[in-house]
């Protein structure tokens, strides 16, 4: 199953609504703070897996390494970012298209490249 960013965001909007109902926080500011900390947490877990893949961890971690763990942690980072964007009411499609245009112009990258 392949999803567009818009579809992914819509799915995670439902998940975010569930999380906000299941574990309610006092206000939007607390939800934004919690989502931000979750991004940081998941990024740390991804970093740990990448260090393990590079044999830069203790032997017991290296022995348990799998590419699937890296993929899972990357997906967790992405999910956390999407949930944060939803909480911040940011349209990821729009801001990513804008960032791509900016990057192409900055580095003079042809859209056909």
Tell me what the structure shows:
The protein is mainly alpha-helical. The protein has a single domain, classed as Helix Hairpins. It is built from five helices and no strands. The longest helix has 26 residues, at 28-53. The mean pLDDT is 95.
Percent range for β-strand residues: under 5%
**CATH fold name, please?**
Helix Hairpins
Low-confidence stretches: none
Rounded to the nearest angstrom, the radius of gyration is 17 Å
Q: Tell me the name of the CATH class.
A: Mainly Alpha
- Arithmetic mean pLDDT: 95
How many structural domains are formed by the residues? 1
The named CATH superfamily: MazG-like
Shape: globular
CATH architecture: Orthogonal Bundle
Q: Count every beta strand, where a strand is a DSSP E run of 2 or more residues.
A: 0
* Helical segment count: 5
Biggest sheet overview: none
What is the distance, rounded to the nearest whole angstrom, between the alpha carbons of the first and last residues? 26 Å
**What's the helix-strand series?**
HHHHH
* Estimated helix fraction: over 70%
Structural class: mainly alpha
